[in-house]
Amino acid sequence: MKAIIQYPVKTVLDGTEYFPMLQSGKNARILLSLIASSQFGGSGINVIPIKNIDSNTTLTDLIPIGFMLLDILTSSGSLNTISIGTSPGGNDIMSGVDCNGYYAITVDKWFSESVAQTLYISSLAWVSSVDLYFVVLNITGGAIPPVLPVANPIVVLGIDADTTLTDLIPAGYKLLAIDTNSTSLVTVSIGTTPGGDNVMSAVDCNDLATITVDRWFSKTVKQTLYITSSAWVTPVDFYFSIQKMI
Predict the structure, then answer these.
(1) DSSP E strands: which ranges in 86-235?
(2) pLDDT band per the 50, 70, 90 thresholds, residue 44
């Protein structure tokens, strides 16, 4: 059976694209985003890009009032070991992370309902400039930072054989999670190379399953994914939750 790939229909709300909620088992962060958007009139999940950092930097009032910091994504052409804290030289947000290429750090921290949060970026040796992308969630309807489209699902239906999904993840997008749906147990791996499992390794897909990925592949190149199983007992549906970074 040939796989059916459905790219999302995008809807604009306050400058942010969002997707209609799928059925049970979908990414909780996206649900929170939709709740925040509908209840507080904000645009849910937003991305604050800070580019070309090449020295210790103070980002004054970076996280707006009422926003939760979900993730920090980094992009660097060379290895830089970076810390981020809420005080000068601090590392309570991100401690000594080797940023080389693309990297994602989960934070999940809510700072204040009434005060914007300053962050301090530091490194013992700045080898090259680093781009940072702060993924924030509007909890209480504070002022909205610069917005980029976010969280659209790519639906791939009826996979029943090893499959190559060419250029599945668009350039500049982060793969948040993979949700699966099947009627019988199928053990599936997904990788960025043929037969690979560096994205999802031997996951038992029976009924509904959710796998958190949080991986950003490239700013400029689409990412192909390879789906494999040692025994395709029944077709499997896949839902790739993605987030636009740039």
Answers:
(1) 94-110, 117-123, 130-138, 152-159, 163-169, 173-191, 200-216, 223-229
(2) low
Query: Which tokens sit at 60?
Result: 């004054």
- The contacts of residue 180 (CB under 8 Å, 6+ apart) are 188, 203, 205, 208, 209, 210, 211, 236, 237, 238, 239
Name the phi and psi angles at 37, rounded to 5. Answer: -65, -45
**Nearest Cα residue to 144 out of 36, 4, 12:** 36
Segment (H or E) for 37? helix 28-40
CB 119, CB 86: distance < 8 Å: yes
Single out the residue of 240, 242, 238, 228 nearest to residue 182, CA to CA.
238
The pair of three-digit structure tokens given for residue 5, joined into one six-digit string: 């790939």
Tell me the one-letter amino acid at 30.
I
Angle CA 230–231–236, to nearest 5: 110
C-alpha dihedral sign at 21, 25, 27, 29: positive
Token pair for residue 14?
């306050």
Q: Two tokens at 175?
A: 């793969």
Predicted confidence (pLDDT) per residue in 96-117, tens digit? 888 877 777 888 888 887 888 9
